Amino acid sequence: MTPRPLAPTALREDAVASLTGWTAPTGPEEELRSEFLAHLRAYDDAMWRSCAAGHLTATTAVLSHDGAMVLLTHHPKARMWLPMGGHCEPGDASLARAALREATEESGIAGLRLLPGPLALDRHRVWCHPPHSWHLDVEYGAVAPPGAEFVRSEESLELRWVPVDDIPEPTDEATRRLARRARAVLLS
């Protein structure tokens, strides 16, 4: 059996601090916040994809500079329009940095500015460990510089700027919620 890496102390401590200091705006997200913290206590590898029971991930809604549009990826496995996001990596010092790294890698946009966060939490079923596993998703928002042009990566079937209030199907409510919350923070 291959040993699984333990989460670096700084990343794990940041995840605990981020979740402990976050005020959930809804009852269901408060339940998720408690579940995520319990998961971090229960699994040494809770930050890594290797954790078959589920693992923390970082997602980012990338907004246009004026907050009118959100950049979505047509995800090849989920076959849905989703925000940028993914797994933490050993070089990530924080969940926020993981979110920004993922957004930059998947959008190809340099100079993204991360908004204060987290903005939301989501738990969804994924295929990392057949028959399934869970992403314990900590969600952020970022703003692209004016005139930013995306570059599609191999992690996406398509990238598209869409109006925050008119996100195409197929998608999910978590994507809509994150885009609206990111826009509200940007415009506040």
Report on the structure:
With 188 residues, this protein is an alpha+beta fold. The chain is globular, with a radius of gyration of 16 Å. It has helices at 9-21, 27-42, 95-107, 173-187; strands at 55-63, 69-74, 81-82, 84-87, 113-114, 120-126, 133-143, 158-163. Strands 1, 2, 3, 4, 5, 6, 7 and 8 form an eight-stranded mixed beta sheet that branches. α1 runs antiparallel to α2 (27-42). The chain is built from four helices and eight strands, in the order ααββββαββββα. The model is unreliable at 1-7 (pLDDT under 50).
Break the fold down into its secondary structure elements and pairings:
Elements: H1 9-21, H2 27-42, E1 55-63, E2 69-74, E3 81-82, E4 84-87, H3 95-107, E5 113-114, E6 120-126, E7 133-143, E8 158-163, H4 173-187
Parallel strand pairs: 1-7
Antiparallel strand pairs: 1-2, 1-4, 2-3, 2-8, 5-7, 6-7
Keyphrases for this structure?
8-stranded mixed sheet, alpha+beta, 188 residues, globular
Number of helices: 4
The major β-sheet equals: 8 strands, mixed
Strand content bin:
25-35%
Rg over CA atoms = 16 Å
- Mean pLDDT across all amino acids: 92
| Cα shape | globular
Order of helices and strands: HHEEEEHEEEEH
Outline of the structure:
With 188 residues, the protein is of the alpha+beta class. The chain is 30% helix and 25% strand.
